[in-house]
Amino acid sequence: MVLFLVNYGIMTPINSINSLLYKARKGDFSHTGDSKSENEIGHFIASYNNLINKVNLSYKALKKNLSKVPAGSARSLKAGLNRIESTYIFKKDDETKEDLLSSLIYIRPPLFLLIFADSLSLSFFPFYVRELYTPVPGISENIVIGLPISIFMLFWAFSLPYAGAWSDRVGRRKPIIAGAILTSAGLILTGFSHSMYDLLLWRSITAVGYGTVYITCQGYITDNTTSVNRTKGMAMFLAGFFSGSLCGSAIGGILVDRIGFRMTFIISAVVSLSSAMFVARLLREPGKGAVPKKKKMQLADFRLVLSNKRFLAITLFSSIPAKICLTGFLYYIAPMFLKQLGNTQSSIGRVLMSYGLMMVFVSPMVGNIADRFKCRRTFTNMGGIISGIGLLVVLFWNSTAGVLFSIAVLGISHSIQVSSQMSLITDDCVSEGGKIGMATVVSIYRLIERIGNISGPIIAGLFIAVMSMTYGEVNSFPYAIAAIGILTIISSLTFMISYSIIDRKEKLQ
């Protein structure tokens, strides 16, 4: 927040002044500045705007008076006017070019607040679901408890393309405000749930709001960056995302120990609502037409991308298993296992945040190494195997320290794996990207990847149910975690073998 305040009050306005003065020095008098602020910088920009408006009024008066000059004298005057117009740029009639005080830093606080709000329940959500559990005929209790997480991920995935298209059409400000308000409503209703069925409905509403803000914030970053600084912009997005997740999971565990489930959800809703208020008050954006519209995804685009065997190998055997580990182990089994080991909610929150810490510290280093040595495939495969081995450790180190170690290893392995997956997609789908655009390819990849988020809790619940029958309920958690680890290792080996087969076939052709 201090970083935002410095940028909002000092750095961004000064950079805006520098930009305006540079344009005027080059002879461009068509731009004015955003002078809404009442401080010294706002007064300076207002004075500058008055000066620019006087220059434009003088130019218009000159053109108007030229029409009254006798024909003989007008020829030489028009030649002089043409020289002025070729040298300088003036505002056209009824044209407004106001350089808004926009910056990537503006989107980080609302993103942080929304992720923080939803992450407050990360460390205790399975226990809250268990309090509302009612038997469902033919479905194990462990699978039912994982359903709200899966439903959330499902509606989040479905909301992304529609919310993205809406924000492209109406701008970024309205969807972020609407999404934050919808998330706030969903969180309050979640806190006042009376049964499993209405909990599923409220989590669906929360997911739609969450997804709307998530994809719109990414769109804002795309609008305000170029190919030169887009990586930096996405790094800022991830920083806001993981800082919100880190703080939310730790603080949520502390809050629920002291004020209970319901009040923690109410606080989550207030924080989410503050995100909407922040955007309504501070975020401004260019008028309609300033940002080019993106092409809508079509069924033919899916067919084209899915015909790429490398894309299928990455998605099915690397990306989806990674998301199964995330939602199945970290979001579902880990909190319940830590509770069984005697930890308080505060301690559970602190243990879970180790995943985000590893992602924050390791991801930048891994990305640089992968780009420098072109070892993205190796990193993708290595990350999957490491995460699988990390989950197997719990089987032999059956304690809080063992779970902490597995979560930290998962964070490190995903740092190695996830960034490399995206690089592989862009490297191996060049042909498809040339036909439908790389942004569309990435959107399809992200949409299919959500299958892992959705199925993770269900698979975890199924493993817990099976292991309970075999090893007893007390020992079911470590064996279920190990089963997810084995599944991940098998998927990684399959990814490595399938890529080798594809390479061999291409060489023979």
Description:
It is a single chain. The chain is mostly helical and 509 residues long. The protein folds into three domains: 89 residues; 186 residues, MFS general substrate transporter like domains (Growth Hormone, Chain: A, Up-down Bundle), CATH 1.20.1250.20; 213 residues, Growth Hormone, Chain: A. Helices cover 81% and strands 1% of the residues. It has 17 helices and two strands. A two-stranded parallel sheet has the order 1-2. The protein is elongated and about 105 Å long.
Unreliable parts: none
Major pleated sheet: 2 strands, parallel
Number of DSSP-assigned strands: 2
Gross CATH architecture of the largest domain: Up-down Bundle
**CATH homologous superfamily placement of the largest domain:** MFS general substrate transporter like domains
- CATH class of the largest domain, anyone? Mainly Alpha
CATH topology of the largest domain: Growth Hormone, Chain: A
Question: How would you write the strand order of the largest sheet?
Answer: 1-2
Radius of gyration: 27 Å
Helix content: over 70%
Give the count of helical stretches. Answer: 17
H-E string: HEHHEHHHHHHHHHHHHHH
